[in-house]
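Entry type: protein chain
Record version: 2
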Amino acid sequence: MKSFFLSGFLLLGTAACAAPAPFSAGEAMTYDIKQGFIKVGRATLTFPGEVQYEGRRLCLSVIRADGFNFYDQEEIYLDPDTFFPVVVLRDLNIFGRKEKIREDYLQQAKKIFIHKFAGGKETEQVIAVEGAVDNIYGFIYRYRRNGSFRTGEDLDIVLPTQKLKIGIIRPERIKAAGRKAASLYMESKPDKYKIWFSIDNRHIPFRISGTVGIANTVMVITDYKR
């Protein structure tokens, strides 16, 4: 397995990547991470676009979340046609416990290889899966690109260790970037993820709950750049 300690991608340009509107290379969103009404950190979700990585043309999304006693960065390399994950690189520091993790998604072979470095030790794990396996951020981008945004939709989402149903539940007004905004509320079953999308054609994820690796947190958007 190739080393995962340096990402080593080459950005190919803003016109690349099979991702039409509502998002394009260079999109960046900033979030407050909150527990209840208390801000506990900050997160950025960026879409650099298509990159050359380990000899493949892939789409890259990067999520960084940091706050008091936690840091979590994921580089998510996605198939440019399907937006299913190919490689995910994670750099974690949760309450002083540091881990570096590389996940290789062999979608055709229905396997995930997980290579972890933590506490001075390296471990490897192979997970057998039944079909195409998702990453929650890859799913968000794919749904923004191709989703119907119809209430009552019931979609399957398969994660490395869990299968979920997910879909738009209802329109809902929320506070985003300091003002009230109309949104479409998406929820998974079991109740793991909640996502509120803007109702305009950009389908911006205003709020995302369940993705940050500390308990009972929600990401609330504060800034959007395209």
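Comment: The chain has one helix and 15 strands.
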